[in-house]
Specification:
231 residues, alpha/beta, six-stranded mixed beta sheet, 6 helices, 31% helix
């Protein structure tokens, strides 16, 4: 594997269902993601974008082809190895999935407590810093019910970033945000790429953020049909 690449997929295929109901949903996916890059994956609904994200993010088992993540081959990897890799990743989804009974700070702390060796004090300080980066220093003790939609999504972003992940997988994270909030989230991910080497793969239909991508991949009917690099 090229050490400059955090992800390399070669000939990745995927099927859903069994027997006569078995249907192929991904066809010969080949892609490489450089460390620190910001890549957007686009395509119509049902094209396989989220399936690609979940396979590369160790949320689903690789069935066919070679997929290497941070130097680890995912084809044939066991549950324990996949779980260990997931601890080094961050995930952001369209639905913020916050625990309504926990404050913003407590929700973000959950994103770092799963890591071995993290004390309660370190978790609190890391959570406060992550929320501060997203302009939420004055909302640490707010419950989700008292936050706007954009603020909730920024809490979810902070939760994904609090553990300083090697890579962030984001599935439509800006869909529910206004233009300014969407730009803030994407710009933060870009800054992390430059400052920490964090890699981002973002699935979106949001044309407002395309000019910020280093690379745009387009998926149609389970196949990558175009790849455009920012020049």
């Amino acid at each position: 594997m090229d050490n400059a690449m955090i992800v390399e997929a070669r000939g990745m295929n995927h099927w859903f269902g069994t027997g006569e109901a078995r249907k192929q949903v991904l066809f010969d996916i080949n892609l490489s993601l450089p460390r620190g890059s910001f890549t957007v994956l686009m395509g119509p609904s049902g094209s396989g974008k989220t399936t690609v994200l979940t396979l590369l993010g160790c949320l689903r088992g690789v069935q066919d082809g070679s997929v290497r993540l941070m130097g680890h081959e995912l084809l044939g990897a066991g549950d324990a190895e996949l779980a260990a890799l997931r601890q080094r990743l961050g995930f952001i989804f369209q639905s913020h999935n916050l625990h309504e009974s926990l404050t913003a700070m407590q929700n973000v702390i959950m994103g770092v407590q799963v890591r071995p060796g993290v004390t309660d004090d370190l978790a609190r300080r890391a959570a406060a810093q992550a929320l501060g980066l997203l302009g939420l220093s004055d909302r640490l003790d707010y419950l989700p019910a008292n936050l706007s939609g954009g603020q909730k999504q920024r809490v979810a972003v902070a939760r994904a970033l609090v553990g300083n992940p090697a890579m962030v997988f984001a599935d439509e994270p800006t869909a529910a945000l206004d233009k300014d909030s969407a730009a803030d989230v994407v710009d933060l991910l870009k800054r992390l790429g430059a400052a920490r080497g964090t890699t981002t793969l973002l699935v979106t239909h949001d044309n407002r953020i395309l000019d910020r991508a280093d690379r745009i991949l387009t998926l149609e009917d389970g196949r990558i049909v175009t790849s455009m690099d920012d020049t």
